[in-house]
From TrEMBL:
InterPro entries: CFAP99. Keywords: Coiled coil. This is Cilia-and flagella-associated protein 99. Residues 355-430 form a coiled coil. Residues 517-535 have a biased composition (Basic and acidic residues). Residues 516-535 are annotated as: Disordered. It comes from Pterocles gutturalis (yellow-throated sandgrouse).
Amino acid sequence: LNVTEEKFVLDTLAGCIEYKSLLDVIVNAFFVRDGRYCLISERNFYKALQVSKCCYSRSPGFASRIVKSLDAAKMQKFLRFFFNALYLNTWIKDEWSRFYDSLYVKENWIDPLLRWQPKVQQLIEQLTDKLNNCTTTVKTSAVTQPKEFNLTAPKPRAIPVPLPIPVLGKRLPVPPSTYKPPKETKQLEEIKIKNRRKAEVNQVSYLCDKFFLNSLLVQGTFLTGRDIVFFLPQYLEVVWELVLRQYFEELQIDNIPIKLNAAAILREGALYQRKMEQELKRIENLLRGAGDPSEFLEWQKQMRGKDLEEQLAETECRRLQGKLSREEAVLAHQNVTQENKKKADLMREEKAELMHQYAQKRLQEQQEMRELVEQVVEGHKNAKQAKIKLQKYKQQIVQEVSEENRELLRQALEEEEEKLRKRYELIQQIRAIESLPSLRHKFVDLTETGGHGLICEMSVVELRERLALLREAQKAAEEEKRDQIIHEKRAKEQLLLDTLDQISLFRAELGRAAALKQEEKKRKSQSGERPVKDERILNLQKKIVEKTMERKKQAELL
């Protein structure tokens, strides 16, 4: 390629990438209207064709060679669709105006395309002539007549003796260290989490103490108890905001972003809003003198702990019962194995006896087969004479049938000649009727009505004007609806952003509270005493040991 042709190729590629949205509008409409039978894989071909026609003025010779080397039928159909003046001035202009300014679209794209329309029309005519002049050749070949293979019948195959099934050795179990992480990594992670929680607690307590001292000191003097009660709601609200903001800034790096849909965001925002209202209501009730439910909660927690211990004991009992059942099942399996061995010995003896009987029966059948073959050979000798007599009788029948066929064939030929003569006369009559002159052109005035006498009767021109007015009204309604949808969408997005900010604050605070609660639970679990085992558990453990010893003894005997 020379410099001009290379620049043409680069401009075409850059146009396909830059104006992809505009090209998609034309190509999608073409596939819906005129290109229903075109391949979807040719979309990029039509996009490049649009851009190459726009760059035609820079390198006309090279562009013409590219266009003429492509498929003539596809080129003709697409150029007629793309350079249609009605389409360019109506819906193509409106669709492109959604991406760019309407004045810019008209001056830079619509007007140049309309100016190039005569040249494109000449190219379409050339493609039409090329399609009309091309001829297709149909290759004919002789039909292959299948022939039957002369194959010999295969002999019956003997049943092969089955191979013995190999016995594989028992595999070694997978070591438990394969699926467990090293202890050093776990210890370092626990130390890291513990130090981080301690730093968070110290930071939060420092902020609370600092704000409390600054709020209670007024010109070097402390406030009274009544003033403290009055300023307590404002103090709690400000402390809550400061703690949440500080904690969220520290944990912002560790928060993993999770993409939520609109319904999930609104649902979670409503949940946190209800929790905040409940907390404020609880604080108001405390300020009014309501009782603290901490004692009841502590009692409830102790009772739940007892219930949990009972559930754990019950679970351990069920586990030991399952282990005991397994030992009993192993013993039962060993007993069944011994019985199966005895049955197998009996079956082997019966099988040997049956094989002996089968061999005797087989010898008897072979003897009977030899006698039958001798009888068949004698019968073949007598069948040759009967075959000669039958052949003579068939020849006589064939001669009689051939004479009857000749007579029937002569009658069929006479009937066919009579049908052809009548058909020829009918064709002559039809041609005489078609040769008469007739009026083929009918002149229609689109401004006149049909004359049927109806009140709502109108001409074609009036109908077109009314349809154009209806389209304009429909288009205006669509634009208004589109603006309304965009406004509602923006308002909804702003609401979702605000809700997301609130959710992030609440999540950070709940994470901190959960971490503190977990550490407190660990301390209590470490300081508490281990529960005494239940008597049922001890009895089940003794039974399991006894069954295990019995199973091992029986295995040694086997």
